[in-house]
Structures are given as C-alpha cells and as structure tokens.
Design brief:
- It is a single chain.
- The chain is α/β, with parallel strands linked by helices.
- The protein folds into two domains: 106 residues, no CATH class; 133 residues, Arc Repressor Mutant, subunit A (Orthogonal Bundle).
- The chain is built from eleven helices and five strands, in the order βββαββαααααααααα.
- It has a five-stranded mixed sheet, with helices on both faces.
- Helix 1 links the parallel strand 3 and strand 4.
- It starts with 10 loop residues before the first strand and ends with a helix.
Length: 249
Amino acid sequence: MSSQALLAPPVVFQLAPPYDRFEVVPDPAALTPDDLREAALLAVGLASPHDPSADVAALVRELRARFPAAPVVLRLGQPADEGELDWLGVRAVVLDGESPRQRLRVTLTDATALPEQIEQWLRLRLPGLPPAVRRLIDEIVRLSPGFGEVGPLLASIGHAERTARTWFRHAGAPGPGKWLAAAHAVRAALRMQAEEGAPLLTLAVECGYSDHSSLSRQSLRLFGVRPGTIRRTLGWEWLLDRWLRRAGL
C-alpha cells in the first residue's frame, strides 16, 4: 500500500507474521485483543513525521495500553531525522515502500534496552504492581545474562531471596526465580528472531541452555510455543503477555 493511503492520518494497521503486508484497521476504537493475530504488531501510519504530534502520541499511548501483546510501531510516508520520534514511545519506525520485516527485525530483536522496555511495559500490563516489585523485576532482567540462579543475583543487589519471594507473592506476581527464567527465555527468543539462519543448538548453548531440546522445552513450558514459532515472529511483548496469561494474570 502506497503513501496515498496515509494522506488522512493517523491510520492504524495490523501487521502479522510474516510481516510483509499492512492491513488497515477500519475502526481502531472497535478493535479488541481477540481481533489481533498471534504475534501481530500495530502500526500507526502517517504521511509525514510532522503530522499532528499530540494526536499521534495519544493514539500510541492508547494502543499500547489496550494491546500490551502488540508492539506499536510507526509507518511513515517520508523519512524523519534519527531520534526525532523517540518521544512518541513507538518501538520502531518503518518507511512506506521498504520491507517491513527487514527493518523491524533489526529493531524489535535488539535487547540493549530490554530492562527499561519491560519496566515501562509492566506499568501498562500490570498497573497495580508495586513500584518496588517492578524495579526488582527490572534488575532481574538487567542482570539475567550473568546469573543462572536467582539467589546469587538478588544477593548481588542486596536483597534476600526469601524477602523478595514474599514481596512478589503479596503482589500476586510470579516469583523472582520465574522472572529470571522468563528473562533468559525472552533473550533467547530475541536471538532466535535476530539470527534466523543460525543453528538452534548454537543459539541455545550461547544463551545458557544445555542443548536445543532444553531451550525448546523451556519455550513450550513458559510461552506455550516452540522455537520454530518464535523464529517466525518478532518482538518479546506477545511472549511475555502469553506467559503472564498462562500464570492467570
């Protein structure tokens, strides 16, 4: 669809695997989570990066709050300066006419800012979560590459595991050890998505799993999907949302 479709912004699109076709959402206000395909993204389309910014920002916030499983990206009819649109809170920017999957794969599989992204996401997904628990989850995600067990991780930041478990239990959230396992699995998922052609065994071992079967079992146990499905998708939001829903949240 050409930029002519973006002349009356903002337009909302759904973009589902294999992320090669934007589908217009006729009535975004009537859209429900059940209307989204698995691992779909939502794209806000603008002809120009200078279209009414306040309206776009409000729409992005609304979509992120209503659809936590779907990363919200921006689709532009013309380029914008790097960093110009960071304040909107979108996860990526796609230019009209380019391959959506190629551009999104680079951005949505980047784990550099994963702790901050998850912390912000949790404010929307679990708004009743106590700030102290949310900050501790942020620390667990940030430190997860260096720890296989949660006890030593918590000790490294001055927290007793028993106390942390009590905080999480009172908050009605999965325990800190489960968050560590989820953080490892999410990081592995992003590697699988980013390196589509790499052998699964190699990625599994590099991510701290004994072999590809161990990674496959963990993906199935936590998210309810196997690595093959994860490799065809992009982003971590839909995986964490599945994990929390499977935990009754």
